[in-house]
Amino acid sequence: MADEITQDEAKGTAGYLLEMGMLKRAKRSGWWIAGVKDPETIAEHSFRTAVIGAVLALMEGADPAKVALLCTFHDTQETRVSDIPHIGRRYLTAASNEDVTADQVSAAHPVVREGIQRIVEEYENSSSLDVLVAHDADKLECLVQAVEYREQGHQNVQNWIDTSLNNLKTASAQALAEAALNMTSVDWQKTYLR
Asked: How does the record describe its quaternary structure (predicted)?
């Protein structure tokens, strides 16, 4: 049976869940540099990253549920520090994702607090296959999004494609990236239209 939850712990945990709703409204700001006026949200990026992570995990022999979980929480800190583009990080010193997460869940139920902190700590500091695949999922999602933006006429996204491609570690992520680079965003439906 689950531990009893106090009213304060329920309120702290619900507060965290409400805070995560901000990710549905917060835009991925790096795309503004490429001229994308209405870029994807952090939540949209995290959702597809989790799906990509599960797929890559299946291909690489990692744990798909664990990788999807790592991907789901990889950018949750951006409710507090926003999405800082790489060029902006040269000028800022931000708190670690582990520290931000600790603040975010400080009032949550202890099991929730410890569990989420453990997930973020692992994503940020482990070199396990699950974490390697989760990091590749993040990079591959960025590449796929850049391909979609390029298709929509945004020509300044090539750096995102090149950087993402060069940082992929697993053979599966590299193969999927190469395939995505030679497709359009609607090629997936050709199989079903025959």
From this structure: Homodimer.
**Is 2 domain-assigned?**
no
CA distance 43 to 23: 5
Helices (H) and strands (E) in the chain, counts: 11, 0
Tell me the pTM: 0.93
> In this structure, is residue 77 part of a structural domain?
yes
**Residue 51 lies in domain:** 7-187
CATH number for position 160 = 1.10.3210.10
pLDDT band at 2 (very low <50, low <70, confident <90, very high): low
Summarised one tens digit per residue, pLDDT across range 145-160 is 999 999 999 999 999 9
- In the prediction, which pLDDT does 194 show? 63
Give, for 69, the enclosing helix (H) or strand (E): helix 64-73
Decide if 193 is inside a domain: no
What's the CA angle centered on 165, arms 168 and 169, to 5 degrees?
A: 10
Contacts of 62 (CB under 8 A, 6+ apart): 56, 129, 130, 132, 133
Cα separations in angstroms, 103 against 12, 72, 129? 11, 18, 28
Per cent of the chain over pLDDT 70 is 96
